[in-house]
């Protein structure tokens, strides 16, 4: 039996090791956000003023999409309270940073901070955890049919769908949690509707042709970039009985300049252990984790994680294994024997219809 520890256990072990100053909020991170706001507004103004060919327009769309994603990463750390402390300023700035992706700050705190962080990789309670074999058996016929398609085809479709998964999941979370806001329900509705009103307003102002390059394509690119990280954060890890960040999370590595542009979002193990510490300091936290538990820390390059994601099926089976319902092959998860250089599977006899 594997030994798990909860977050408090790790925090207790590392607390004395981590310098006090890294616990302070880092308002200077907002300068990065300001730079992205300037880039977004400038690109949109140029696109509005000039009639450019498709290639140049697409080039601007890529810059915008990249900026939308980066603003989302900043919004994430702002709403964890690691940039500014005062709640109303935190929510306002978090909402602004998340505006390109139209995420309500209050909804995000409920869905991400309170639920995902507290119940990471808990089959029932984590809203971001992938479904298990038992859940698949209870799913509608169409879902069960989709999981019978060849693995490579499913991987292709799911990678393609990363271009809208974040926005779609945000809407799902909105309708999952909106009932729980009670007296604040109207405010959360407004936080979702205002950004959409701005983007739809932009459509009526610039016309469909320009809007596709100014907002729609960047939104798809932004979705893909944030989902490229999010889908590798936990989906190669097992479901776990204890919220142990060294078992249920993966840190990915990217070139240093991408870490700078993406606000160190790649450090996800560190983030789950210390969500209250600004990501700027995660390299320090990583050093400490590697000093204490080098054999348990899970990391690989983002590209390798995406390739592994492509090559393994996405249904949990026995918590530590993935199952391909098409041929009943089972694959190991990270920390439980999954070798990313040589992915193997085991044949199973299961009765699935
Ligand atoms: Zn977080
Ligand atoms: Zn996470």
Helix content: 55-70%
Question: What integer value in Å does the Rg equal?
Answer: 21 Å
Q: How many helices in DSSP terms?
A: 15
- Label the structural class: mainly alpha
Sequence of strands across the biggest β-sheet: 3-4-5-6
Task: Identify low-pLDDT runs.
Answer: none
- Straight-line N-to-C gap: 32 Å
The gross shape turns out to be globular
Order of helices and strands: HHHHHHHHHHHEHHHEHEEEE
Percentage of residues in strands: 5-15%
Overall mean pLDDT: 94
Biggest sheet details: 4 strands, antiparallel
Number of domains: 1
Query: Based on DSSP secondary structure assignment, what is the total number of beta strands?
Result: 6
What ligands are attached or bound here? zinc ion
Explain this structure to me?
The protein is mainly alpha-helical and 353 residues long. The chain has one domain. The strands form two sheets. A four-stranded antiparallel β-sheet has the order 3-4-5-6. Strands 1-2 form a two-stranded parallel sheet. Strand 4 and strand 5 form a beta hairpin. Helix 3 packs antiparallel against helix 4 and helix 9 crosses helix 10. The radius of gyration is 21 Å and the shape is globular. The relative contact order is 0.14. The model has no long low-confidence stretch (mean pLDDT 94). The site of one zinc ion has 6 residues, from loops. One zinc ion binds next to loops. InterPro entries: FA_desaturase_dom, Fatty_acid_desaturase. This is Acyl-CoA desaturase. Keywords: Membrane, Transmembrane, Transmembrane helix.
